[in-house]
């Protein structure tokens, strides 16, 4: 029990002095460490403040540079967009030119085919594969070739318009994205440390998988610009080709149109001359027929006129045959009477033979007249087909259009509203 109330141990004075010295030393050490920490902290705070300000200033500059880059590319994209829109509008006008040119070829083709069909109505020897038919067949081939070429060119134009619009879509999408990025970076550039709506954002420094490199960013817009340039150049080349095609096809069609017209005029003149010659021949045949009819009438009258003399001679012979006895003498009178009867009979036969020949000639003239009349009708039918059915149809339906074919070829482009086509 006495141990529980034992007094605490006492230290030696030297130990006390040592302990005090240690406390002082420890305190001074701690104070020095604290002072160094304060100085280090102040230096660190100053250093970090400068670093933070410098970094923030660098970031601000980078944002400004980024905004300038976006502004540059937006300007580039906007220029290319304006160019491709303008080129597409011009190409749409050329598409309209092609469509109208294609439409204007259909009626000439129908008319050429109708002319060929109408000329099948020619009859007889006039149903000939003449120069007109050859040129009409060639005209049909030219028109069909032009239509096929214009249809292919129209398909190319439609496809090029689609490609232009695709390039336009890519430019617009890129511009839209860059406009949004520009707004975001402009907002970021406007933020300061004292901006009210700045806040902490979780996972703000996380790099998402869909981030791309600056090189890819530049390449993306550059590719869009190059595609737009490529399609614009293709469109310009296509427009030049369309102008060339329209010029060449218009010239070919107009040339063939004139060739057919010349062939028609030559053929009509030829048929008209032939008809005129036939009409002259017909008139001469009709005159000859009239003369032959008069000749036949004269021959018949001559034969009739010989009936009296032959009857008189035969009556005399019959009467003298009744002379009696020795008076029935073959005298000179008897001889002459017999000769007279024979002569008149022979002459009548000669007249009849001549009459038969004359009637044969008259029949031949009649057949010739009928043949000439039929041939003149054939020529008249051919002239009606060529002059009335074909040439007048061509002149009324195509004359105006052929003059406007030259409108397929447009002068140097002046504005989008200028279109040289059929009104």
UniProtKB/TrEMBL annotation:
Keywords: Cell projection, Cilium, Coiled coil, Cytoplasm, Cytoskeleton, Flagellum. The keyword Heme does not apply. It holds the Pfam family Tektin. It is found in: Cytoplasm, Cytoskeleton, Cilium axoneme; Cytoplasm, Cytoskeleton, Flagellum axoneme. Belongs to the tektin family. Microtubule inner protein component of sperm flagellar doublet microtubules. This is Tektin. It comes from Anas zonorhyncha.
